[in-house]
Predict the structure.
Amino acid sequence: MESRSVANIIQRGGTILKTSRCKEFFTPAGRKKAYNNIKKHGIDGLVIIGGDGSFKGAQIFSNEYDIPCIGLPGTIDKDIAGTDFTIGFDTAVNTAVEAIDKIRDTADAHDRLFVIEVMGRDAGYIALHSGIATGAENILIPEKKTDIEDIVVQLAEKERRKKLMNIIVVAEGDEFGGGNEVAKVIKERLPLLEVRVSILGHIQRGGSPSCFDRLIASRMGYSAVECLIQGKYNVFVGIVNNRMHYMPLNEAVKKKQRISDEWMKIVKILAS
Ligand code: F6P
């Protein structure tokens, strides 16, 4: 890669390298093939942008072969420890917020209950942030036990008053198993209630990156190259308290970012 290789891409989503999950890389033969390709193309360092799985792969690879690896947090799930931000999260949340705002218009006009499922695998960050930012009436995340009885009571009262406009944002990894399942539970309890489910899906994974994501990606990318130049290998680069934060790649694999107590309190008060 030269500086020219990355010209005119900062505004684009996706990958120009066409990197993606690769089953072959799980096998020693696959990793050997990767190493041979690396040598063939004169690549002398790897910057791995990804999450848990990518870092595990990098760690195994750098143990087997003499190739310096630097890990950068890149996931819309924001579930990596050792950094306050992950590349892609802000863009995904903004996409979710835009979509939920649009759905709210129908919810308001038709006075309807919407259950909206967002991504995040087994983490609730996208649901938490998009739910708070759109004023969702309820936010269901895997990190917090849901009092479904309480939600049913609230909805029954709204049904009685004929004021049904209600947005429930559900993380796909919540305890019920996502939006359809939550809607099913509500329908069982309140059969006359009209419930609409919207699964936002892969629109959250693509599109032009937000300004914030472009800035953190540039900042982390710069630091990754600095690490390679200074010979700091097998390091994870994050941002903590607005400063660059470095830790061994193998530690980054072990830890998961947890939702802070402060956010847990806020979500309890604003949307429970
Ligand atoms: O880890 C990122 C993520 O978008 C998750 O939020 C989601 O569960 C998963 O990937 C979707 O993966 P796939 O594209 O393989 O369906």
User: Anything to note?
Assistant: The mean pLDDT is 94. DSSP finds nine helices and eight strands in the chain.
